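Review form for a predicted model. The reviewer records the input and the model, then writes brief findings.
Reviewer: anonymous (R2)
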Amino acid sequence: MDEIGKTIETCGFRTNFHDQGEGQAVVLLHGSGAGVSAWANWRNLIPRLSNKYRVIAPDLVGFGFTQTPQDFEFEFMSSWIDQVRSLLEQLSLENTYFVGNSFGGALALWMAHTHPNLCDKLILMGPGGWPSKVNENLELLWGYKPSVENMKAILDVMAYDRSIVTDELAELRYKATTREGAQDTFERIFVPPYQRWLDAQVLPVAALREIENEVLIIHGRDDRVVDPMCSWNLHNHLVNSQLHYIGRCGHWTQIEHPTRFLALVEQFFEE
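Model under review:
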């Protein structure tokens, strides 16, 4: 599978997305790190999940190979809500399953809140969406400046098991941030001070309580980017939610514990 998939016009720009498999549609929403794309986030999950489902994984505007016009103004969270809505409507999809990673988890919640007809089951992984303070690790993530050393520092923060952060992985992710326009666009999204962008992901408690979708929250117990207690608080206000903590796991549940993660996803979707 290549980083560049299909393209479709959404909200005045062309969205790059992967579309594999048949059956119930599952949308995968990636996180917000430098050099992130759908392919980088989900390349190991898409082939396995597409054996049973139609898997759709877009590059959110500002990331990956989705076009970001020079005059595009990012609006949290409406820019991405509108993009995903447009994508699903053009693909004639409703009652879609969502899997959202970190920022993508908050986006999945916002989709359920604003467009309930488009959403069915939700899986949130180390999600945003609950009030919290920007910590030094998130500052590192959103304040990234391109270098192999800086990328390795970010990956060290993401993973519980630092042995998976190889020089090759750091080099690969670093190169993604040096693609023409990638870093400039990333810095247009996350302009300091960063707290406002974390706050913008938060859903009011009243909105959370109105979401009746079945929700599975998966969080690494040792996550140093998003406080695991954020998931506990979301769980307490989402009326049809389950919460699963994974020990010896950081912010990368699908990468650090891929077999366990896939088993949880498939069991939840098949219930």
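Findings: The mean pLDDT is 97.
Further findings: Residues 78-90 form the longest helix (13 residues).
Recommendation: see findings above.
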